[in-house]
Design a protein that fits this description.
By secondary structure, this protein is of the alpha/beta class. The chain folds into 3 domains: 3-144, N-utilizing Substance Protein B Homolog, Chain A (Orthogonal Bundle), CATH 1.10.940; 180-235, Alpha-Beta Plaits; 242-442, Rossmann fold (3-Layer(aba) Sandwich). The protein has 16 helices and 14 strands. It has helices at residues 15-29, 33-40, 49-73, 83-98, 103-116, 123-144, 154-163, 167-174, 191-200, 242-247, 264-272, 285-298, 312-315, 348-351, 357-372, 394-403, and strands spanning 3-6, 9-12, 180-184, 205-207, 213-216, 233-235, 254-257, 277-282, 303-306, 327-333, 375-385, 407-410, 423-425, 435-442. The strands form 3 sheets. Strands 7, 8, 9, 10, 11, 12, 13 and 14 form an 8-stranded mixed sheet that branches. A 4-stranded antiparallel sheet has the order 4-5-3-6, with helices on one face. The longest helix has 25 residues, at 49-73. The N and C termini lie far apart (64 Å). The structure holds S-adenosylmethionine. S-adenosylmethionine is lined by residues 259-265, 281-284, 287, 308-310, 333, 335, 367, 386.
Length: 447
């Protein structure tokens, strides 16, 4: 545990102090929870990690509601160096409203955290605000909850409104905690048999329309999943599980997983076709460590390389593939706005800006065009994103099809609207995340 020196005494950072620091860095420095939480977890006791996660993810999920409450209770906004005190108020309020932490503990812990965070002068303010909230909760909440709140930034809601008639359902689904989905490795056992195995361990699960997927009634630690370490199952969202099934990898195929890290889809490709030659590529060296770990757990082999998918001529020699030969199949799980996985990463709502979308669309187009050149005639490219925005999805593919005479759009098995360009999954409370797929075939003769 990290200690903070305050005068002569050394004070251990409490879970609430760490939570406030994390929230400050998300909101004011644009850092993500998935980058911050692994960094700070050594600062607290292992048993407090679930509470830290609950507070940090929870605050990001409901931030506008908490901010409104603070505006009602605090006359002057806490800016600049005092922002950490504002974050402590968020931490305190979140616990009072959304957790079973006893009210006195939530208040006391927030008040005490002022010392380690060097804002002791705010001790009485934090105490007074949280206690006033407890006294006036009913009236405050009646006002704050008078109108339905999206809990999303306005620009994003506008994008959803423009694209979906059921945008309210999407917004509601984004604001809920997602279910935990498993992908059963059919090399080890059938989905039905693994469901029975789970039941023997008192873990309740449900089947879905994806043949390899099981939804758990309650999330569990992976260490409690039978044979997890031996690669019998992988934690992966229901809709993400369609990638490898739609790609239809075959043994002996040369397959590129172009944006592979952390490797959830790479391992699925190899489960489907253990004798395929898979190249798993990602531009972020640090993220490739997880690809190696996942392959090792599944006892699979792939060629893992750190490179930029937009410049294949720079790395094709490295993997001993002649430019002229090309890949049989390419999975392009493109870098995207991640607006389809907000329920898993609620900080995206505050990290992502409207101005980020156009450069992402441009990057996706660049990678897609560059990789298309490296696909064999008759080869298949599956374009996927975890985005809900048409610019990154159907409009991206529509433009590509217009510009690429030897690209043909293939129908997806669950696609009922045959005129649609690809298929857009939207998030739903007991279903999967927001995901988009378009399957393209390279025709031999230019159309
Ligand atoms: C949606 S994530 C991939 C998730 C992964 N396919 C899985 O299922 O586990 C997108 C990935 O694209 C990578 N990426 C971004 N730009 C890239 C580029 N120019 N070349 C290769 N990878 C890139 C990011 O580092 C990130 O790991």
């Amino acid at each position: 545990m990290k200690k903070v020196k305050t005068g002569k005494k050394t004070t251990a950072l409490s879970t609430r102090a760490v939570a406030a620091q994390v929230i400050l860095q998300v909101l004011d420095q644009g850092k993500s929870l998935s980058a911050l939480l692994p960094e700070v977890q050594t600062q607290i006791k292992a048993q407090d990690l679930p509470l830290l996660q609950e507070i940090c993810f929870g605050i990001c999920r409901v931030l506008p509601r908490l901010e409104q409450i603070i505006r009602k209770l605090v006359d002057k906004s806490l800016k600049g160096k005092t922002r950490i005190a504002h974050c402590l108020l968020l931490v305190g309020l979140y616990q009072l409203l959304y957790t079973r932490v006893p009210a006195h503990a939530a208040v006391d812990e927030a008040v005490n955290a002022t010392k380690a965070l060097k804002v002791e002068s705010f001790r009485s303010l934090i105490n007074a605000v949280l206690r006033r909230f407890l006294r006036e909760q009913e009236t405050v909440l009646a006002e704050v909850d008078k109108h339905w709140q999206t809990l999303h930034p306005e620009w994003l809601v506008n994008q959803f409104k423009a694209a979906y008639s059921n945008w309210r359902e999407i917004v509601e689904a984004n604001n809920q905690k997602p279910p935990m989905w498993l992908r059963v490795n059919q090399r080890h056992c059938t989905t039905e048999n693994y469901q029975q195995l789970l039941a023997q361990h008192d873990i309740e699960s449900f089947k879905a329309d994806n043949p390899q997927a099981l939804r758990l009634a309650q999330a569990v630690a992976v260490s409690n999943l039978p044979n997890f370490d031996s690669g019998w199952v992988t934690v992966q969202d229901l809709h993400a599980q369609w990638s490898a099934l739609l790609l239809e990898p075959q043994d002996n195929d040369l397959i590129l997983d172009a944006c592979a890290a952390p490797g959830g889809k790479t391992t699925h490709i190899l489960e489907c076709a253990p004798n395929a030659r898979v190249v798993a590529l990602d531009v972020e060296e640090s993220r490739l460590k997880r690809v190696h770990e996942n392959l090792a757990r599944m006892k699979q082999t792939a060629q893992v390389i750190c490179a930029d998918a937009a410049h294949p001529d720079d790395w094709l020699k490295q993997i001993n593939v002649e430019s002229a030969v090309g890949f049989d199949r390419i999975l392009l799980d493109a870098p995207c706005s991640a607006t389809g996985v907000i329920r898993r990463h609620p900080d995206i709502k505050w990290l992502r800006q409207e101005a980020d979308i156009a450069p992402l669309v441009e990057l996706q187009a660049k990678i897609l065009t560059a990789l298309w050149e490296k696909l064999k005639p008759n080869g298949v490219l599956l374009y996927a994103t975890c985005s809900l925005l048409p610019y990154e999805n159907s409009l991206q593919i529509q433009r590509f099809l217009q510009q690429t005479p030897n690209a043909e759009l293939m129908l997806l098995p669950f696609q009922t609207d045959k005129s649609a360009v690809g298929f857009q999954f939207v998030p739903s409370p007991l279903g999967g995340d927001g995901f988009y797929y378009a399957k393209l075939r390279k025709t031999e003769i230019l159309k």
